[in-house]
Structures are given as structure tokens and as C-alpha cells.
Specification:
The protein is of the alpha+beta class. It has helices spanning about 10-65, 100, 125-130, 180-185, 205-215, 285-290, 315-330; strands at about 70-80, 80-90, 95, 110-120, 135-145, 165-175, 185-190, 190, 225-230, 230-240, 255, 275-285, 335-340. The protein has a six-stranded antiparallel β-sheet. The chain has a three-stranded antiparallel β-sheet with strand order 10-12-13, sandwiched between helices. It has a two-stranded antiparallel ribbon with strand order 1-2. The longest helix has about 55 residues, at about 10-65. The chain is elongated and about 120 Å long. The N and C termini lie far apart (about 130 Å). The relative contact order is 0.15.
């Protein structure tokens, strides 16, 4: 007779040990999954944000590179008597501290702004003028801190709270609405203003301020967002390194105005475009910046308002580094995008008269 078969089962202790090991292994796997997912989301967010910032830099560089003043030589008359030939232009270039140019708060409009004309006439509300490929548009670039209320459909109001962010804007005045010639030639306001309209006059900025003040008007909005989370932009107009080692002589205090005649012939910006414009964007990573929401509309101060206090390129670099470290101390990743743009139609010359 065969002995009965022995059936061995797991003991309660073995089951408990196995369950404990399984739970520990599962916890390790979940922890690794969450860590990998977090790293992936962060990397994806940075890649997306910085991709938009690079795209914005490309757009800005392309437009600035095509700027024009259409400069020509004409007779200057003193008391009605011809006296000499001087460089003239009805177009304008103006770059400088955004808060000053726009008469706004430096916290809300940090860094620089730039406004100019370029022959990009494909941007027009009229089908007739859109066929004039070389007609002019007025362009502007600036950073603004505001909510997205003016940028989204009205039905979202009251459903989704406003999202306050720093944003890099592009402003466009279409060809068929171009207003620069209303101010720089002919009769304006009952007074002769032929070629004398400067940004130092009481209304000398209206060629871009009127459009700026109506930039979000519906249905013909004149502004669009190039990139979110750009906390400051710097537009530094300069000569080549061989002509100016400090790179700051041409635009002291970061201001370059094509209506200004300076006493130094080598640096006289009167009706001249700068040869080179250095463009600097300081950008945040969206995924980390989103953790720091500012729903009351008060612009956060990361020290970017101090950038335009620099008196040399070296000092500017140091101040940018301070801003980056200030952001990192708050757990916000940041990056600087930088390029030098040569303006194609700039024919820089020390000759101002003949």
C-alpha cells in the first residue's frame, strides 16, 4: 500500500514576508515611475517653453534685420534760404527702456522696447495693398506683465481665472493703417512739421503709441504673444566691436533715437539705423513658473528692472547672472537667449551734412 501524498502549503509567516516584499517592490517601482514622470514633464515643459522663446527670437531678429529708414539727402533751409544738404527721413527707429517709451510702470513693462518701420507689406487689412510686397509696416516688440483676459474668448470669463504672466509681444500696424507719414511730413495740427517731428516733441511718439494703446481692440487686434514667461527683453543698439569695444557708446542708457542729433559725429544717430542690434531675452521655464501664480496682478520683482542700469556689456552680463540666480533661489529655472542682428539697410556714416 502506497503512503499518502504530502501536500505542502505556505505558512502565514511566509505569506506576510512575501506580501511585504511585494509592497516594497511596488513602492520602489511607483517611486521610480513618479520620478521619471516628473523629470519627463519638466524636460518637456522646458523644451516647449524654450522652443517658443527661440521662435520668438527668430521672428524678432528677422523683423529687426529688415528695418528701414529710407534715408536720403535733402536741402536744409534756414529762414527759407537753402543752406546745406543734410540726411533726412520720414521714417523712425526708436529703442529704449520700455517703461519710458510707453509711459508705463517699469515693473509691468521691464527691459527694453523697440519700434520701427520695415518693408513687409504683406501684412495688410486690404487685399489691394497686400499685393504691394515692399510696402511698409510699423513693428514693435516689448515685454508686458498682464492677465490673458484680452487674449482669450469671452465665454471663458468667470469659468477660468485670469492667468497672469510676463509675455513677449509683437505689435503690428498694417500697411493700410500706417500712420507715420501723418506725423513726419506735411501739415499736422495746423503747423508745418516737415521732417521736424521728433520723439522729444509733446506728441512725438504717437506714430506707435496710438497703435499700442489700441493693441487689443476687437476685432482688429494689433498685438500677438510670441512667447510666455519672457521676463525681460533688452535691445542694445551698437557699433561693431572694432569701432566700440564697450558696445555701449552708441546707445547710452540703452536709448537709440533716429530723430536725435548728437554732437559726436561718430555716434550721431540722426536719421541713421544702428549697424547692429543685440537682442537678449531672459525666459522662465513654464512648468516651474506655473507654481508661482500671481493672481492679484502685482508683477513679481526678480531684479530684471536693474538690467538697464548697466553701463557696459560686462556689467550687463553680471546683472543678468544675478537675475538668473535670483530665480533659481526661488526654484524657478531660467535661461537667456542672445543674438546680434545686423540691419541690412544700415549704412552707418559719420557724414551728417554736405
Amino acid at each position: 500500500m502506497l503512503p499518502p501524498k504530502c501536500h505542502r502549503a505556505f505558512s502565514v509567516l511566509e505569506l506576510l514576508v512575501s506580501a511585504t516584499l511585494f509592497v516594497m517592490l511596488l513602492g520602489i517601482i511607483l517611486g521610480l515611475t513618479q520620478s521619471i514622470s516628473k523629470v519627463w514633464r519638466t524636460a518637456a515643459g522646458e523644451a516647449l517653453q524654450y522652443s517658443r522663446s527661440r521662435d520668438a527670437m527668430e521672428v524678432i531678429s528677422r523683423r529687426i534685420g529688415s528695418a528701414t529708414l529710407n534715408t536720403y539727402w535733402d536741402i536744409e533751409r534756414l529762414a527759407g534760404t537753402p543752406s546745406r544738404y543734410v540726411r533726412q527721413s520720414e521714417l523712425r527707429w526708436l529703442a529704449g527702456p520700455a517703461a519710458s517709451l510707453l509711459s508705463q510702470s517699469a515693473n509691468k513693462f521691464p527691459g527694453s522696447a523697440v519700434f520701427f518701420q520695415a518693408p513687409t507689406g504683406i501684412f495688410s487689412n486690404s487685399a489691394a495693398t497686400s499685393r504691394l510686397k515692399e510696402s511698409l509696416n510699423t513693428w514693435g516688440y516689448f515685454v508686458e506683465y498682464a492677465s490673458d483676459s484680452a487674449l482669450r474668448p469671452e465665454f471663458l470669463d468667470g469659468i477660468i481665472p485670469p492667468r497672469y504672466r510676463f509675455r513677449m509681444y509683437e505689435m503690428l500696424e498694417p500697411t493700410d493703417e500706417l500712420s507715420i507719414f501723418n506725423y513726419t511730413s506735411g501739415i499736422v495740427g495746423g503747423a508745418a512739421n516737415n521732417l521736424t517731428y521728433t520723439t522729444s516733441s509733446p506728441d512725438g511718439k504717437n506714430w506707435f503709441l496710438n497703435t499700442f494703446n489700441q493693441r487689443f481692440n476687437i476685432p482688429s487686434s494689433k498685438a500677438r504673444v510670441l512667447a510666455d514667461n519672457v521676463i525681460a527683453a533688452v535691445f542694445l543698439c551698437r557699433l561693431s566691436e572694432s569701432d566700440d569695444s564697450t558696445k555701449m557708446a552708441l546707445s547710452p542708457s540703452f536709448l537709440y533715437d533716429s530723430t536725435v542729433s548728437r554732437n559726436i559725429a561718430e555716434l550721431n544717430s540722426k536719421n541713421q539705423l544702428p549697424p547692429i542690434v543685440e537682442v537678449i531675452l531672459v525666459c522662465l521655464d513654464d512648468s516651474t513658473a506655473a507654481r508661482f501664480d500671481w493672481p492679484d496682478g502685482t508683477p513679481p520683482d526678480f531684479g530684471q528692472s536693474d538690467l538697464l542700469g548697466a553701463t557696459s556689456i560686462g556689467e550687463l552680463d553680471e546683472r543678468i547672472e544675478i537675475v538668473i540666480k535670483n530665480l533659481q533661489s526661488k526654484g524657478i529655472q531660467a535661461r537667456t537667449f542672445r543674438t546680434s542682428v545686423a540691419i541690412q539697410s544700415s549704412k552707418w556714416s559719420t557724414e551728417q551734412e554736405n
